Amino acid sequence: MSADIRQFCRDSKAPVVIVFILLFLSSFAFAQGDDPHARHKQMMQQDAGANHADITLPDATLITQDGAEVNLADDVVGDRIVVVDFVYTTCTTVCPVLSAIFSQVQNKLGDRVGDDVVIVSISVDPLRDTPARMKSYAGKIGAGDGWVWLTGQKQTVTEVLEEFGAYTPNFEDHPSMVLVGDGSSGQWARFLGFPGAEQIIDKVNEFSSSRMAHQAHAAMQETK
């Protein structure tokens, strides 16, 4: 097992299932005698604390796992809180870990997912990730309503990934990254590495509280 993954396993607050996945993948890579994902290993060493992100939601038409064409900004996010990651269905390294974290976020948020919160996974391999393939992948990890999987035309997806800071020429080398945004206020935060589900939910709640405070202030101003 590589030293960086050993350190991640010791220091991370990630649940046991995520640590187990990392250990398995590390052992597999060692057995293969190569290291095709050096960037991913660097991401494992990143501090998973959130940083401000300057993002404008792209006015882009993408395709859901159900084959529906949707506008990312208007139809998928709207004025909700959004949690975003970037995956591809044949990934055997970072993506299964991110998906496991997102499954926990989905379970912990419960009925809020699909209501005031939407979870979004965007393919970094749109040439292979058809809607049917993404729907199958989503089903295997237990993704429910309110967790939207998006693919689309290569150029459109590339533009979306560039805006989010997630594009790499080699999709297999995409960053391990989670974004949390508020579709109403335009606030965004970026986690690099593998944030815990609780870290993500804390940021969701922070944005929700900020929104409610703003709405309360606006209501008070109107009554004056």
Keywords:
224 residues, 8 helices, Glutaredoxin, 8-stranded mixed β-sheet, alpha+beta, single chain, disordered N terminus, globular
The CATH superfamily is identified as Glutaredoxin
* Mean pLDDT over the full residue set: 84
CATH topology: Glutaredoxin
Could you give the count of β-strands?
8
CATH class: Alpha Beta
Provide an overview of this structure:
With 224 residues, this protein is of the alpha+beta class. The protein has one domain (48-223): Glutaredoxin (3-Layer(aba) Sandwich), CATH 3.40.30. It is built from eight helices and eight strands; from the N terminus they run αααβββαβαβαβαββα. The protein has helices at residues 3-11, 16-32, 38-44, 72-77, 94-109, 131-140, 154-164, 197-223; strands at 50-52, 61-64, 69-71, 81-87, 117-123, 147-151, 177-182, 188-192. Helix 2 packs antiparallel against helix 5 and helix 5 (94-109) packs across helix 8 (197-223). The chain starts with a helix and ends with a helix.
